[in-house]
Amino acid sequence: MHWTRAWIGLGALCLISLTLPAAAQPAGSPVANHGALSVKNGQIVDQHGDSFVMRGMSLFWSQWAPQYYTGETIDWLAKDWQVDVVRAAIAAEGNDGARQHFDREFDKASRVIDAAVANGLYVIVDWHAHHAFPDEAEKFLTAIARKYGHLPNLIYETWNEPLRDGVDWSRDVKPYHLQVIGAIRAIDPDNLVIAGSPSWSQDVDVAANDPLPFSNAAYTLHYYAGTHKQGLRDKADAALGKGLALLVTEFGTVDSTGDGPLDRAESERWWDWAERNCIGWMAWSIGDRDESSASLKPGTAVADWSENDLTESGKLLRQKLRSAAERKAACNGPSASIR
């Protein structure tokens, strides 16, 4: 079982220590089968030490598609799309996100986490920002850690996409992660943490030259197939060669605007690359925005989607997820190699 130690203040008098057991996971679910995740020899592995590739979907920005931050949506993704993981993109940009409305956005994250646990899924709580807000990120993610850090389902993504211009890994982004991840680790020493890098989380090769000092830390790689091609895969290969563990917490089947035509050929090249390297992925996005990266057509209900409710990207992603679940994912299990 996965345990952590939580400290709860009793007035101004004392602190008591509580040991919280992990919630029971549904039999046969991803978390029941694989348990707490960690990083070993540059790969994400499960409780048995075997390579584990999780595949799933990211929700859209939480302030703009709040209707999908519900148990019904997560239940449907587990049942029909057969995801292993869902990602809650908790908005931290602009004037209508978690920085201004902490309780509202915390409740959204909690609903997604509770539903993921009920289905035995992994769940990424993503501080969805382009600019640095370390104090606000620390406040939000440590609150998540206090409430849910005892659960093996939980994964933290501490900075979605640092910008490119004027942003340096060692000067700007690494110190941010040292603060935020350090605060999380003081509460939850075990669960997987995913770190972003400059250039919208594409400079993983730069991060590999000056990695974070934490255990169970991996690095996110973001791409949009219509824009980012072999050059970005080369950067990712360089990071892998230096021992970095990677997880694609956001990608699109279209171009980097989130719109435009679906690039099936390049999407398949990315999926082939991820499979060869035993790297998991989450697609952007579960939302009904009128753009081609959205999986749902405008006005689609929160669950029970038919084929007619899905965009071309949504249809392709659902098919990929169901196919991976049916073939039991070649990278998962003791036969998978560990770099």
From TrEMBL:
<keyword id="KW-0378">Hydrolase</keyword>
<dbReference type="InterPro" id="IPR001547">
    <property type="entry name" value="Glyco_hydro_5"/>
</dbReference>
<comment type="similarity">
    <text>Belongs to the glycosyl hydrolase 5 (cellulase A) family.</text>
</comment>
<dbReference type="Pfam" id="PF00150">
    <property type="entry name" value="Cellulase"/>
</dbReference>
<keyword id="KW-0326">Glycosidase</keyword>
<dbReference type="InterPro" id="IPR017853">
    <property type="entry name" value="GH"/>
</dbReference>
<feature type="signal peptide">
    <location>
        <begin position="1"/>
        <end position="24"/>
    </location>
</feature>
<feature type="domain" description="Glycoside hydrolase family 5">
    <location>
        <begin position="45"/>
        <end position="288"/>
    </location>
</feature>
<dbReference type="InterPro" id="IPR018087">
    <property type="entry name" value="Glyco_hydro_5_CS"/>
</dbReference>
<keyword id="KW-0732">Signal</keyword>
<protein>
    <submittedName>
        <fullName>Cellulase family glycosylhydrolase</fullName>
    </submittedName>
</protein>
